[in-house]
Write a structure and sequence with these properties.
The structure holds 3 protein chains of 3 kinds. By secondary structure, chain A is an all-alpha fold. Chain A has helices at about 1-30, 40-55, 60-85, 90-110, 140-160, 160-170, 175-180, 185-210, 215-230, 235-255, 260-275, and strands spanning about 130, 135. In chain C, a hairpin with a 2-residue loop joins strand 9 and strand 10. Classes of the chains: A mainly alpha, B mainly alpha, C alpha/beta. The interface of A and C includes residues 288, 289 and 290 of A.
């Protein structure tokens, strides 16, 4: 029993991070139909920049804030100097561009930082909290709370603000949004900035637990993408549910079946889900109109 | 020039001549090795291009099939004492069989969902190769016994250059044949409109499956050849996610729906990193930049963009 | 006259809305049967049901006396039913003649291994399919454009290309969904001629069309749909005079057409 609780907690923690990455995927996808494989690099940048600014003598909160800001600028630059220039290209072509961007960002990180693993101190120490026989790292709670806060903020913004309405309108129908005067390109740029910020926060929240290095982005992008697809591409609630489910599947798979095959178990679950629901858990079934 | 690029036999003859002439200018074994790698990746990219560029179905897990081919020759020779060539054929059969078995449910998915499913498939294969260390040597990989044909041990990059060049030419011929056949027309039709293909009697699911199997076999053969050339293989080096991404990039960069494009794309992505190693730590940075720039400047891929320009202003 | 295609009480509902409601109709070989009705009457949905793209909620479809309800389109094509589309479904990256050659698919017999090896029988089959495709292109007046990439053809040409492609399957019944929409008068005349020519060859035709002059001129029988239901069915003259049609349909449609003009 305590093991199950343990698995659930570690699954939720990892799942929260996947959910954030998946949410980043979804925001950009909804605004622009772009599947941004550089999303994982935002997570890497959030962690790595905080680490190195902290090493350079800045206190962690300042370093973290600067890291988010810099990552947002990187996100905007990715939009302005790559995605926007490739407007009108096919979906696969744009994916290749984001993959190129991800290789580039990894290359930059390798040059500016280094190729070693780095940690950040946990916010509230690393003395585990005992709960029902399970040991929970305080940082796990920070990750969960942080993820919940971000999700709440994003949903509130989309639901309650004019800006959120504009994002929603752009996601629903870009042409119609443009016709009623919504500055669609600025909205898309904003979605890149938001996704970058979300990724950076995820990165700096989770670094005390999982460590970070210049090349953690690939795996993050992979998992985030998978989570977004599991939930149903374009669905924000789907992204979150998909991320959490993926984290739980990995954690329970590793604990109960085989730790070597935890990723395999997660992907088997995704494959079977898609066989049953080809549009993901929350995705809308599209009927082809002829 | 355009005519020449369009005529399939002219293309094959030109390719064969270039491949035969290159050794005359290669100064060292290193060049043979890199060129052999180009041939190998071009072969895999041609297979993937049949699936992506012609039938319009993406696969983000194709390196998994390369891994099957690579490990088939390594394990077949070292554990079962099979001749390398036989093991290569067995690997191709296994890759084809696996593609056949999983293809139908996977290929029902569309677009990004298909991408994630194939990604998962590739990941599963590479995980098995990594974790079943008793067979595969685990993450550090395993040695590949030299191929022996008619009593001679095939070694040396120059020998393997010739063999892979032959395989590439053969792969090009088969692909071009397929494209200009009823199957080729059916798969190109599926790319543009599945519904229209169906109402004129094309069994879309069956054709997707056939192309998937063929492209898996191409990848598997390429994987086997890579194993022979390198003499040592690892799961990440043959079947990893980044390898799959690399294959897709080759196809798109060179030009979706262009056999010649797949070769050009493979050459770019094999030679560039080799050339960029002189920039040491700036290697990845530059590689990423070049991929982004070429995709932005030549969105349709190198060869189709070139053809459009030759035709006069992309008319 | 024997019937070739028959629907019996065919219905489909999408989320509570019955788009096609209990529609029964019959078409004989060589007959031109038009379906008319205002936008949203369910004409295209009915076509999608008959051609196997949608599964009916209830009712049956019979082809040459055989029940084919719910069969997928590729199997219906093999039994001699093909169609064109209101919104073009063209293989844009292929040449015009290759588009039509895809229509020959159901008669091609060579296997994939011989395709890879380009065996002589494949080359013969390619030649044969090309000949058939050229003949169909000539039939719809597109022979000159055979080698052009389909993506570069005009809208009116593409409409006829779809008909040629469907004809290449050697159908017994052809479903044409607004073949003259967006065509100029010359092209419409050409399509009129093609439809007549096809019917004369003994092929049954089910036609959805908004061009009333064309419909009245060429139809042997007309079925009027309104909100998914069959309102009236009969000869063109009878339908034109029917008070229910005039009241419930032609009135609104007439003004619609006036708006368009």
């Amino acid at each position: 029993m305590p093991e199950l609780l343990q698995f659930a907690f570690s699954g939720l923690t990892v799942g929260a991070v996947y959910a954030l990455v998946a949410l980043g995927f979804t925001l950009i996808y909804n605004a622009s139909d772009v599947v941004n494989f550089a999303q994982g690099e935002f997570v890497m940048l959030g962690g790595m920049i905080t680490v190195f600014l902290h090493l350079a003598g800045l206190p962690i909160p300042v370093a973290a804030f600067a890291a988010i800001l810099i990552t947002v600028l990187v996100g905007l630059a990715l939009y302005a100097f790559a995605i926007d220039l490739a407007r009108g290209s096919g979906a696969v072509q744009i994916i290749i561009i984001t993959i190129g961007a991800s290789i580039f960002l990894r290359g930059v990180a390798q040059v500016i930082f280094d190729k070693r693993f780095h940690a950040l101190p946990a916010w509230f120490g690393s003395e585990p909290i005992r709960l029902g026989g399970a040991a929970i790292l305080p940082q796990s709670l920070v990750v969960l709370a942080g993820a919940a806060l971000i999700v709440a903020l994003i949903f509130l913004m989309i639901d309650r603000t004019i800006l959120g309405r504009a994002i929603l309108a752009t996601a629903t129908n870009r042409l119609a949004a443009r016709l009623v005067g919504i500055p669609v390109r600025r909205i898309v740029a904003l979605s890149f900035a938001l996704s970058a910020a979300i990724g950076a926060v995820a990165g700096l929240l989770v670094t005390p637990i999982t460590l970070t290095s210049y090349d953690v982005g690939t795996l993050m992008a992979l998992k985030g993408f998978a989570a977004a697809m599991l939930g149903g591409m374009g669905s924000a609630p789907g992204a979150i549910v998909g991320g959490v489910l993926l984290g739980l599947a990995e954690s329970f798979g590793a604990g109960l079946i085989s730790s070597k095959y935890k990723d395999a178990i997660a992907f088997l679950i995704i494959l079977f889900t898609l066989f049953v629901r080809p549009q993901g858990l929350f995705g809308k079934r599209s009927t082809e109109r002829v | 020039m355009e005519r020449l690029l369009r005529n399939r036999w002219a293309l094959v003859v030109a390719l064969a001549l270039i491949l035969a002439a290159l050794p005359l200018v290669f100064p060292s074994n290193y060049y043979f090795r890199v060129a052999a790698l180009v041939n190998i990746f071009a072969l895999a990219a041609i297979g993937l291009n049949l699936l992506m560029g012609y039938a319009g179905q993406v696969s983000l897990g194709h390196a998994g099939f390369m891994g099957i081919g690579a490990y088939a020759v390594a394990i077949g020779a070292s554990r079962f004492g099979l001749n390398g060539a036989v093991a290569m054929l067995a690997g191709a059969a296994m890759a084809g069989l696996l593609a056949f078995l999983v293809g139908r449910p996977i290929l029902r998915l569309k677009g990004h969902y298909l991408a994630v499913a194939t990604l998962g498939l590739g990941l599963l294969i590479s995980m098995v190769l990594t974790n079943e260390a008793g067979w595969t040597g685990g993450p550090d990989g395993m040695a590949v016994p030299r191929l022996e044909l008619f009593g001679t041990r095939l070694r040396g990059p120059d020998t393997w250059y010739m063999i892979t060049a032959g395989a590439l030419v053969l792969g090009v011929i088969l692909a071009l044949n397929l494209i200009e056949s009823p199957t080729g027309r059916a798969m190109r039709a599926i790319h543009d409109s599945e519904i229209a293909a169906r109402v004129v009697g094309v069994d879309v699911a069956a054709y997707k499956l056939k192309i998937f199997v063929i492209s898996a076999v191409y990848a598997s053969i390429a994987g086997s050849l890579m194993a022979f050339l390198n003499g040592h293989i690892t799961p990440d080096g043959t079947a990893g996610f980044l390898r799959s991404v690399e294959l897709v990039t080759m196809v798109v960069l060179g030009g979706l729906g262009s056999v010649l494009g797949a070769i050009v794309g493979a050459a770019m992505l094999v030679i560039l990193p080799q050339a960029l190693t002189i920039f040491h730590e700036y290697e990845h940075l530059l590689l990423g930049l070049i991929i982004m720039a070429s995709m932005i400047l030549l969105p349709r891929g190198v060869i189709p963009s070139l053809l459009a320009r030759l035709r006069g202003g992309g008319a | 006259m024997s019937t070739l295609l028959e629907t019996e009480n065919l219905s489909i509902a999408f989320g509570g809305i019955t788009a096609v409601d209990q529609v029964s109709l019959a078409v004989a070989p060589g007959q031109i049967h038009s379906i008319i009705g205002p936008n949203g009457a369910g004409k295209t949905t009915l076509f999608n049901l008959i051609s196997g793209l949608y599964q009916p909620s209830s009712g049956r479809v019979k082809l040459a006396g055989e029940e084919v309800t719910g069969l997928p389109p590729e199997q219906l094509a093999r039994r001699g039913l093909s169609r064109s589309f209101q919104n073009l479904q063209i293989f844009f990256r292929m040449s015009a003649v290759e588009n039509v050659m895809v229509g020959c698919h159901r008669h091609e017999r060579t296997g994939i291994l011989s395709h890879l090896l380009a065996l002589p029988n494949v080359r013969a089959e390619n030649r044969n399919s090309r000949e058939i495709a050229m003949a169909q292109l000539a039939r719809v007046g597109l022979a000159d454009l055979a080698e052009k990439e389909a993506g570069s053809l005009s809208y009116g040409a593409l409409k006829r290309l779809e008909i040629a492609r469907a004809l290449a399957t050697e159908p017994r019944i052809l479903l044409l969904d607004e073949p003259a929409a967006g065509c100029n008068p010359v092209e419409t005349e050409e399509i009129d001629r093609v439809i007549h020519d096809v019917a004369k060859a003994g092929i049954a035709i089910l036609l959805v069309e908004h061009d009333m002059r064309l419909v009245m001129r060429i139809s042997d029988e007309i079925t009027v749909l309104e909100r998914g239901r069959k309102l009236v069915s009969g000869k063109p003259e009878a339908v034109r005079e029917d008070p229910r049609v005039i009241a419930a349909y032609l009135g609104t449609f007439g003004s619609e057409e006036a708006n368009r003009a």
